[in-house]
Amino acid sequence: MHVKELVFSLILLMQACGPLLAQTAAPKQPDSPGLLQRLAEKAREAKATVQGWGEPVLGYFDAYFEDHIQPVTGSYVEWASDVKSSVREKIQTTIDNYRQLKGTNSTDQPSQS
Predict the structure, then answer these.
(1) pTM of the predicted model over 0.90
(2) Out of 13, 53, 71, 109, which could bridge 57 as a Cys pair, Cβ 3.0 to 4.6 Å?
(3) Across residues 101-105, what is the average pLDDT?
C-alpha cells in the first residue's frame, strides 16, 4: 500500500515544518508596496504607453501572441489541467474506497451488549 507510506510521510513532513513556520519573521510593514502592487503599477504604465501608440501596434502584438505564444502555452495549460483532474480523481477514488471499506468493517463486527 503506497497510500499508507504517502500519508505517513506527509504527516512527518507537516510535523517537521510546523515549528519552522512558527519561527518565520513578521511580514513587512504595509507602508511599502508589495511586489504585486508594483507589478500592477508597471502594467498600468505599460498599458497607458501602448494605448498611446495606437491600433496598429496593438494589432501586431495580438497577432504575435496568437501565432507564437498561445500555441506554446496552450499545451502547458491543458497538461496542467489534465494533471489536476487526474490527481483529483485519484484522491476522490481513494476516499470513496476508504469510506466503503470503513462502512463494511463497522457492520461486520458483532456488537457487544
Answers:
(1) no
(2) 53
(3) 78
Is residue 20 within 8 Å of 12, Cβ to Cβ? Answer: no
**Mean pLDDT across the chain, nearest whole number?**
77
Answer for the pair 3, 94: CB distance below 8 angstroms, yes or no: yes
φ, ψ for residue 97 (rounded to 5)? Answer: -65, -40
Q: What is the pLDDT of residues 20-61, one digit of tens each?
A: 666 666 655 555 667 778 888 888 888 877 676 666 666 778
Q: Tell me which amino acid residue 66 is.
A: E
